[in-house]
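Reopening: structure tokens for the magnesium ion complex, inputs below.
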Amino acid sequence: MLLRGAPSFSASWFVDFDWPFADMIEFINVSKAFGSKVVLKGFNLKVNEGDTVSLVGFSGSGKSISLKKIVGLIAPDEGTIRVDGLDVQSLNRHELYELRRNVGFVFQFAALFDSMTIAENLAMGLLKAGGYTEDAIRERIEESLRLVELEGFGPRLPSELSGGQKKRAGLARAIAFRPKYLLYDEPTSGLDPVTTAVIDRLILRMRDELGVTSIVVTHDMRSAERISNRIAMLYDGRILEEGTPEELFRSTNPIVRGFVDGRPELVEQGNRELQGLSPDGSMP
Amino acid sequence: MKDLTFGPFAAVGKATEDILASLGKFGEFFIEILRSLRDVSTWSPLLVQQMRRLGVDSIPISLFLAMFTGVVLALQASYTFTGQIPLYFVGTLVGKTMMLELGPVLTGLALSGRVGANIAAQLGTMRVSEQIDALETLAYNPVAYLVVPRVLAGVLMFPVIVIFANALGISAGLVTAVNLLDMSTQDFIRGLRLFYAPFDITFSLIKTTSFGLVITVIGSFMGFTTRGGAEGVGSSTTRAVVISSMLILVLDAFWAVVLLQ
Ligand SMILES: Nc1ncnc2c1ncn2[C@@H]1O[C@H](COP(=O)(O)OP(=O)(O)OP(=O)(O)O)[C@@H](O)[C@H]1O
Ligand SMILES: [Mg+2]
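Re-run output (same inputs, fresh job):
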């Protein structure tokens, strides 16, 4: 299950492992600070198989670093991140690489290797994994490009693509392994409304055609509503509120309301309430 | 009084702390490079390309420097000798200075600008555009993929470059001496061989290898630790050049103390 689409990989990293956990991504009490700047504190989130969870929040609230922790790019100071029951922090390098092949990462600005063609970008991971014939790689690249509606773009260089096309190419690279999970870092930021809708459609398509479980970091409440079955709002280092899109849009929390409706005065009011309610950090 | 002194001391303390923290990070990075040497299948396909880019492509600028250095050395030697010292010593001075000092050091300084800056800018751009993170998510070891081929290329190719530079610098000195100083080729070669020791070349190569290591490792470290967009890339590049140039001079003195005494 975990290694779907990549039958040639060694599965040794979990054979000696009982399987008491459901398939999911789990943040348990995660904290992270950079120097004196606390970004996450007591962050908890559970993403079940089949979910598409939108993670929303203000700029700089720690959304990107949360995603990076799932694939072990950034270590938490405290707490645990589990992917399918495995503590990401405890994995050795080989195990971490196996995990990463099951978690596709779509970077905010695509992060395509700019000296390589799109096809070469897509081939990178497959070449490294080994066990694919040249034909299989070519086929996989074509199929991935078709899924993101970029047929025929293989020979182009990233610099020859528009912003929206780059994001799609980044998505194609992330799905080249047919991962079980996909993490999107602001897939629609900086795009016009129509291109945004195209990307949203692709995210849904990945869910339906590839059966992936996704976390989508976004600022865009409209696309969050379109693509996700759950929305979680990150605020002040932890999840402030979490629920179905309808629940979030009906929220009475002033900060959530302020974020959803784009009203800073509500956020300020909510902030004052937060401080008023818990001057020493304890709840009344 | 207390206030006056406390501020500066605190600042010095903070700076020391920062330097120690950076040194610690650098140590970790260097160990990671050594560890990544084992990942041969990742770095070996890229080695030849880097040897060409960092090595072969650096030969013109090194030869250019060496040629003019040889000319100047010959003329300065004869100017200094003012007829008090036999002219064939011009050959001695050009040969020794070129091999022991100026060949390696000038090449090293030029390449810290060319190669070190290039590595820092390239890897720094990859860092801030998340390409290094992307490599990791594709299950690559980015140090094995990006750093090891560059460091090995530097260590292997810089000595080759310096051999060419030494040879051309000495030849340029010879041509200058014969044409401008009223010396014969035999005179120059006599001087050249007079105090020549095979160790001169070894010394030259040891030095150069260490410069190649310093330039590529510092450039890679600065690139990898870049933060903050285009401006960050700019300051990493500057830092790579400044620090590796300084280290080249420090190493230069170090090798003289260790190997020439
Ligand atoms: N390596 C680092 N060193 C120091 N601080 C960092 C580092 N990486 C991130 N930060 C800080 O952590 C905070 C959270 O960063 P993150 O990129 O996760 O924010 P974000 O929620 O994704 O914001 P945005 O919506 O702007 O992308 C930011 O304030 C950032 O300045
Ligand atoms: Mg972000």
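Chain B touches chain A at residues 42, 129-131, 133-141 (CB under 8 Å). Chain B has nine helices and no strands. Marking as resolved unless the reporter disagrees.
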